[in-house]
């Protein structure tokens, strides 16, 4: 072999190695190829599929509360958290925090979530916390996600944070099996892997992606709940609210939400089968399960009703008090069901009610979600409740 040919081959080899290094730095991928937030969006149990959320940035705002838009930086599995490894860190307890938009931290900064509040108190860094909050999901998603996440991440603790609207009278769908995970082949050239991502319709795992999508649809989007029915908005909302919804700057699903909330709080929950599944799942995997209850803001104070009336102009009464006992029975139901299944139960109602009674408003006025200080308070309280739990 001539020197010229050897040098040519060496140059080509160096070029290929350099290309691979650059591609791996530019296009990072997770350990698992088929674990993604999209697996748990409502509708998947009916066979529907959704685009992957991994490696993407999303925004949520409420123009009537603030002009600031909160950015959700989703990791390589589509969750609002740091990057995860399946292998547990040595010397730490691993805890999964599972829930809906309150767990994810809607209307707060990335470092103002419940997880962040927990870590504020964890001064000795005893816990690794994984934030598996997903906005817009419910019990069926929690069942499936808990089963898969326990199998994948082998936690010591799982904290399932239930928001008030998670307790419905619908029969839950119990998972028949857990996700059979598939790992990426570390030795596959990254160029080939990127091609596969494109072919599968997955977001390209670009490390330097600054594009942001909005969680809130505008009137021109077919996912807008009142698409083609602007007359509904005219009938039920004031002009300021209506225009903000149409532009995708205020949550359009809030229309008459207070009435749906009232009806839901009066229903008898149907969670016995779900909790029985959780008990068997956690016992089998030697995991401690903690159940938390986060009340809707109208369950703890009447202050916010003045704002919800603006989204409910036609059917809402002049006064509506959801702080009375008949609308706060779900907490007792959860406490009893948790005791039967030997789960730790944390009721955040009194904590939040005390703050609200002192005019420390933890929720936004127009948006139903908490401010950052509210999530941090819940995280602080959660730490105090679980710090002595032994797996």
Automatic annotation (TrEMBL):
GO MF entries: hydrolase activity, acting on ester bonds
CDD domains per UniProt: SGNH_hydrolase (cd00229)
Organism domain of life: Bacteria
SUPFAM superfamilies: SGNH hydrolase (SSF52266)
Taxonomic lineage of the native organism: Bacteria, Pseudomonadati, Bacteroidota, Flavobacteriia, Flavobacteriales
Protein name per its UniProtKB record: SGNH/GDSL hydrolase family protein
Protein's organism: Acidiluteibacter ferrifornacis
